[in-house]
Amino acid sequence: MADQPAPQRSQVERWVSFGATIVAPITVLSAVLFYFGYVSSREQYQYFGVDVDTIGLSTRDYVMRSPQPLLVPLLVLTLVGVGGLALHTTIRSRIASAVSRSRPDSGSDLARLRQTARRAVGAGVITLGAGVVLLFAYPYVRDWSLYNLVTPLIIGAGAAVICYASYVVNLASVRAAGGVPLRRAIAVLLGIVIVASTFWATATVAQWSGRGIARYDARHLDRFPSVILDTKERLYLTDGCQRRGDPGSACIEETALPTGVGQVYRFRYRHFRLLIQGHDRLFLVPDAWSASNSTLVVPLDGSVRVQFQFQNEAP
Question: Which backbone phi and psi does 82 adopt, to 5 degrees?
Fold first, then answer.
């Protein structure tokens, strides 16, 4: 009777282990989605002069914003993976055919495969070296707009070619070469380089995606809710408001409200658009964005009165 709890503990341990195998990847995936959502959102609102940390977005908000900046990298990685699998299948079939004893010319086929793979290793070393040169030349080329995309792509491509071409050389060898632990260590290090380069390139694409979203929003602010803002004190808004009628200029219309008993709001402002709502504040921009504009941060603490305007279809 004393031995009965052991199977129960074993079953519980199996369930815990199974749960860990599911929770761990989900945790890593959530962290990755959060990071790229944050990178994209930071670049998006930085265009309007807003630090994304002041908005107060939650972890779920960043995760929900991550699919758009990750769409292109995921498609590219999927296509590269499909192409890599097709190439790997072709090479494996050629090697399997070459090592067949029924083929008298198998030795020459394997020699050609090894020679081609060694040339590929050399090309990968040159490519990786070029990426490392770019990496250390950052102080001189950091103003290059494509630096943060080209550099990781060159480094990752060079490391991937070296890793796979070395694998093909060993696979096409008649006798196993020595130094297996060293080769495995080099393969692990090259794998880390590939992952880091992919992460770097994807983060760059996420930044560009956020900036692209911001530029699109700046050209289509009519999609955002129109806001009428009543305040107790005058705001003295002057950005882009000197000449009404200028193309691209945004003028906030200020109106003095009539005074009366119980009337605490003295000024009304029109032609605002709601960029985003934070936890306890609104971020307002003029309804036509230009380089001279700025974002107005309005606290939701009773010091202002906000009305939203929507242009809906007639009922």
Answer: -65, -45
